[in-house]
């Protein structure tokens, strides 16, 4: 049975159908607006809530969500910067070579790769009618002239395609097996590349990209993902979307498809090249990544590929993640969503494992290039010799080691497996998010036009009043924009001032704190020493009490035990002299434990002290921000009131200006820095005639009368301890809190800018809609009456859709939580 219970599956299915009904009805509603000529032409200088550009985009989004909901599909878009290894990464996720690799960009159309449990041989389906129509159209040209064109002649594959087209070549709707799929994708890519050249001479001969805007029109490969093969069958499914990279999407039509598909994806995974993060200009990478549409942080992941090529001087994982988080994907991604991997190693390891498990034999080294790649990775320069001499179980062990070293396990678990397990939840939430956004746009549209639709004919006085309102609203809009821009400058200054004050506080804290830490740690060491001395004294005392009895039973170990205790006490008294702590291993562990307990108490004290120092600054910051935003909120209130006078309800996105107080998440551990040493010591023997033997030993230079014992000691210098304590203070307390505060300030500023842009754009769109509605009042009476009747009907439909949206919103969290069983 699937991961969900029977009753929850049924309820979730019912809720899915209700949400699909909402998606369908919203599409119909938008189609009604188009059909009845209620949609003006797009004008980039005068944005509207609805126009000839926004409505088709909204319909396309709704259709895409409807299609994904059908099977609860989560679409994970994979985007790669130049030469990052995007295809290899997808192959590693799938567990087989599902996409071809060439030295040039290979993705001409976005391609879906869907997990299909039990399907070992991949199949590809695509409606190629538009492509074949295009090929027929090309045959009217003298295509062979392009075979000699310098832009084509160096690519034998494109020259071959030209010859095939001339000979009557057509694409098929279905392909089976890797080789056939490779051939289709490669030929399709070559056709697109050829079209780019032809269109320079014949603009009307452009590739039919418009036929592949919808997600269900894209090429789709169905195959079992190795990583998901052993997972329990789920109610939903995972689909990868192989996209043209930002650098590949240089055609306007392809760029539009690229951006639309990313917006409609459930999540996005960016693949970057570790070797190019620094050697390639940062500006180039940033420019590529900036072409991505805005994506929510929790829906964006980054894989830094080729991390196996790191040398001794290369950036480690933490540094690499910091570069991606703080620079390349600045303010776009959560740091925990960044992974350093080697896709090639992961792919080779999985491929060799799958082959051996399937055929129970080694693949031929000389016949398969990928086998040679694996052997070189696993065995180095002795690749062939080691391969030939290795047993199957040894090769499997080597493949597992390579898979571990690739570090692919973590993203496979956290991204791929989790997306698959939670597919119904992700698919429903994705659809609900888009439905809600579009509903808000529709509601805003009718909130503006609704007032005009109350009466078929407005009086001259009402029209003049609206004209005055429009003039005033336009002034308020400009004032809002000015205040918004000014506010951002003020916020930046406030952040800078607060940051400087906080830096001064941290500096003072760093100066004062080490001495407190040292004092507390040394006090802990002193108490530890006193307790140990007392413990040894007690043990010696207890031994003396039994001295007579032990002597009477001729226990010769008594003196030996006493000698050992004396030696231990001597050790303890010498343990903290000469700038070095020297203790037996078990005692050093006890001391470490006590110091860890002490540092945990210190951590609480220091956090409270830091928060007491920082809270007044943060309080002042919040007060300053509140004053700044009073102007913005005042502007919005004025605009809302003006709409209100006209009987219009306006919905504006609220400004998210709450600044959450920082709470550093820190963990202080006293590392085991001490070094281990073995010492052999002589102690006096107390056995019979031991004294005589020691006396004789003086003459014969022997160890007569003595015994040797081996003791493991741990040593740690006070200087080393001091350095570690100071480093601990900076790395585990001050540093994390500083980083957290800086992050809070940055995120606050970025979010404020986004909110202000949304508000100003929304206000502008609504004012423009009001202007359109005002102008429509100049239409002839009958035409105006018909227009208003249609809009009132559509408005009623939209309000009924809202009830269904609210129902889905109400019950989805309950069903997903399993509270309805």
Task: Explain how this protein is built.
The structure is a single chain. By secondary structure, the protein is α/β, with parallel strands linked by helices. Helix content is 62%, strand content 9%. The protein contains 24 helices and 12 strands. The strands form 2 sheets. A 9-stranded mixed beta sheet has the order 4-3-5-2-6-1-7-8-9, with helices on both faces. A 3-stranded antiparallel beta sheet has the order 10-12-11. Residues 545-556, 647-671 and 686-696 have low confidence and may be disordered.
Which properties best describe this structure?
three-stranded antiparallel β-sheet, nine-stranded mixed β-sheet, 24 helices, about 800 residues, alpha/beta
**Low-confidence sequence ranges:** 545-556, 647-671, 686-696
Outline, from the CA principal axes? globular
Give the overall average pLDDT.
77
* Quaternary status: single chain
Describe the protein's topology.
Layout: H1 6-35, H2 54-70, E1 73-80, H3 86-94, E2 111-115, E3 123-125, H4 129-138, H5 144-147, H6 156-166, E4 174-176, H7 178-201, E5 220-223, H8 226-229, E6 237-242, H9 252-264, E7 267-273, H10 282-290, E8 300-305, H11 317-328, E9 338-340, H12 343-359, H13 369-379, H14 383-389, H15 392-406, H16 409-421, H17 423-452, H18 460-545, H19 547-552, H20 557-574, E10 580-584, H21 585-645, E11 675-684, H22 690-700, E12 706-717, H23 718-776, H24 781-816
Parallel strand pairs: 1-6, 1-7, 2-5, 7-8, 8-9
Antiparallel strand pairs: 2-6, 3-4, 3-5, 10-12, 11-12
């Amino acid at each position: 049975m699937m991961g969900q219970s029977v009753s929850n599956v049924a309820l979730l299915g019912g809720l899915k159908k209700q949400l699909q009904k909402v998606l369908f009805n919203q599409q119909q509603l938008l189609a009604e607006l188009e059909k009845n000529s209620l949609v003006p032409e797009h004008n980039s200088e005068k944005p509207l809530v609805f126009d000839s550009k926004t409505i088709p985009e909204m319909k396309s989004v709704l259709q895409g969500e409807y299609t994904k909901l059908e099977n609860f599909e989560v679409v994970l878009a994979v985007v790669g910067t130049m030469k990052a290894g995007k295809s290899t990464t997808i192959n590693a996720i799938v567990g087989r070579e599902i996409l071809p690799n060439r030295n040039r960009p290979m993705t001409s159309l976005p391609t879906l790769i869907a997990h299909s449990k039990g399907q070992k041989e991949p199949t590809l389906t695509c409606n190629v009618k538009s492509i074949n129509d295009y090929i027929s159209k090309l045959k009217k040209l003298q295509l062979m002239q392009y075979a000699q064109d310098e832009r084509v002649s160096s690519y034998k594959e494109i020259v071959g395609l030209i010859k095939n087209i001339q000979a009557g070549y057509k694409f098929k709707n279905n392909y089976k097996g890797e080789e056939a799929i490779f051939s289709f994708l490669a030929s399709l890519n070559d056709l697109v590349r050829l079209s780019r050249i032809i269109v320079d001479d014949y603009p009307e001969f452009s590739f039919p990209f418009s036929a592949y805007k919808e997600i269900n029109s894209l090429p789709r490969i169905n195959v079992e993902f190795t990583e998901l093969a052993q997972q329990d069958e789920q109610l939903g499914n995972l689909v990868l979307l192989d996209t043209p990279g930002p650098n590949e999407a240089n055609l306007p039509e392809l760029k539009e498809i690229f951006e639309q598909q990313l917006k409609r994806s459930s999540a996005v995974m960016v693949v970057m090249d570790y070797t190019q993060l620094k050697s390639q200009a940062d500006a180039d990478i940033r420019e590529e990544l900036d072409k991505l549409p805005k994506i929510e942080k929790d829906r964006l992941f980054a894989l830094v590929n080729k991390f196996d090529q790191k040398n001794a001087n290369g950036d480690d994982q933490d540094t690499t993640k910091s570069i991606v988080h703080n620079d390349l994907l600045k303010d776009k991604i959560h740091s925990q969503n960044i992974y350093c991997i080697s896709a090639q190693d992961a792919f080779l390891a999985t491929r060799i494992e799958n082959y051996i498990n399937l055929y129970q034999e080694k693949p031929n080294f000389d016949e398969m290039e990928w086998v040679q790649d694996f052997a070189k990775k696993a065995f180095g320069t002795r690749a062939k010799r080691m391969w030939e001499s290795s047993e199957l179980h040894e090769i499997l062990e080597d493949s597992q080691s390579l898979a571990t070293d690739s570090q692919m396990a973590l993203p496979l678990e956290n991204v791929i497996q989790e997306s698959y397990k939670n597919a119904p939840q992700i698919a429903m939430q994705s659809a609900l998010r888009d439905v809600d956004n579009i509903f808000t746009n529709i509601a805003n549209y009718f909130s503006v036009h609704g007032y005009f639709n109350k009466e078929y004919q407005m009086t001259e006085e009402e029209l003049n009043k609206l004209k005055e309102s429009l003039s005033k609203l336009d002034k308020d809009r400009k004032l809002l924009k000015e205040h918004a821009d000014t506010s951002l400058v003020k916020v930046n200054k406030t952040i800078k001032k607060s940051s400087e004050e906080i830096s001064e506080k941290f500096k003072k804290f760093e100066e004062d704190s080490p001495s407190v830490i040292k004092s507390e740690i040394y006090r802990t060491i002193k108490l530890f020493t006193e307790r140990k001395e007392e413990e040894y004294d007690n043990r010696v005392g207890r031994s003396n009490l039994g001295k007579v009895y032990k002597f009477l039973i001729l226990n010769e170990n008594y003196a030996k035990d006493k000698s050992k205790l004396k030696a231990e006490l001597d050790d303890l008294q010498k343990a903290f002299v000469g700038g070095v702590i020297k203790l037996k291993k078990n005692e050093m562990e006890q001391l470490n434990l006590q110091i860890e307990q002490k540092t945990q108490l210190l951590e609480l004290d220091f956090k409270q002290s830091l928060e007491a120092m920082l809270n007044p600054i943060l309080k002042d910051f919040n007060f300053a921000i509140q004053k700044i935003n009073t102007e913005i909120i005042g502007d919005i209130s004025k605009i809302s009131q003006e709409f209100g006078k006209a009987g219009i309800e306006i919905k504006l996105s609220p400004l998210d200006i709450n600044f959450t107080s920082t709470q550093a998440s820190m963990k202080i551990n006293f590392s085991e820095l001490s070094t281990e040493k073995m010492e052999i010591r002589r102690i006096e023997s107390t056995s019979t005639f031991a004294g005589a033997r020691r006396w004789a030993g003086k003459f014969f230079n022997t160890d007569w009368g003595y015994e040797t014992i081996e003791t493991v000691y741990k040593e740690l210098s006070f200087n080393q301890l001091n350095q570690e304590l100071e480093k601990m203070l900076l790395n585990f307390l001050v540093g994390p809190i500083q980083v957290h505060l800086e992050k809070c300030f940055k995120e606050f500023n970025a979010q404020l800018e986004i909110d202000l842009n949304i508000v100003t754009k929304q206000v502008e769109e609504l004012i423009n809609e009001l202007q359109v509605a005002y102008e429509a009042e100049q239409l002839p009476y009958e035409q105006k009456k018909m227009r208003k009747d249609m809009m009132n009907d559509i408005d009623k439909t939209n309000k009924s859709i809202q009830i269904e949206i609210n129902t889905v919103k109400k019950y989805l969290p309950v069903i997903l939580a399993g509270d309805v069983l």
